[in-house]
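Hi C.,

You asked whether I'd gotten around to modeling the 90-residue construct. I have! Everything is below, sequence then structure, no commentary in between.
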Amino acid sequence: MADAPTKQQLPPPTLTTLVSLLGTQVLVALGQIPNPMTNQAEPDAEQASHGIELISMLEAKTANNRTPEESQLFEAVLHQLRMLFVQMKK
């Protein structure tokens, strides 16, 4: 009998993991990463904007409860996503 496939280890549930997950979803909506279901770039400005707003809201709600590294991550991710969104809209 063949060995059962090993389960992939999930990352720990951290704020960093959540921001990375949301950021990746926005990159898909921006057309920067192919949609994993279709393997095609499918830009969706409304979905991208919504995702950026979600990350921004999460940044505001966690403002006094983050490590410096988490704050830097928010700043970098939001800056990158906003710049890509502006490029998308041109």
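If it helps when you're writing up: Residues 17-89 form one domain.

Thanks,
B.
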